[in-house]
């Protein structure tokens, strides 16, 4: 699986999008032993999906017409990783069956969630090893492992480049990711998911900026995200949404401080607003210098009134 910061982005991104049409149980713990599932999706209390919201999510909305586990991978998923998450899926099946037995009823197959493995790429050998094949009625890139397995491998880089696949392609890598981000940026301001995606991409940019061991891919992503995020802030300011911009800046600063120091205690929280209130040039310079500042240096600057 991906590691911080990309896995945190993917988890937050899918949680925000899927919660628009259903419920998310984040880091659900299984009763059988101490295991966690990052994104466990279920339908709302009425057990129905809003068709209009489903349409906005495209292919991801189609996935969300029934309960499921969503596992995004930064790198190509390996057989061991897929088996590990399938094991969690089977533990959930056991929990559902135990509950049904206690209630003296039979389990309906539609109650059982699917495992959606979201992998940027996948080899032919991996797909063959899991007997994963294209299913009639589904597009290229969506491979089903057999109905009783309740597992689907979604190969993001094989998805057609259409509006329907956009929200999944944002979880891709390289050129697929770059194209998807450009498409999100080009969406109209009235799109209900554009601001959600851009805020989360802005948070990813902020986190990458203070990452100590950035690689070439991190640097490339930073270069693409920086002008997009700055342009969005400028546009928001021009529309007179200064309050919203400041709230967004506070979130960015909080994320930066958390990434730099591990957590936000009351002392660090107290300097978030003063940082946001700095003149634009000082604010930008401070964010750039943050990776090299110690906690003591940062607190001393604001506690001394400078």
TrEMBL record:
This is Flagellar assembly protein H. It comes from the Bacteria.
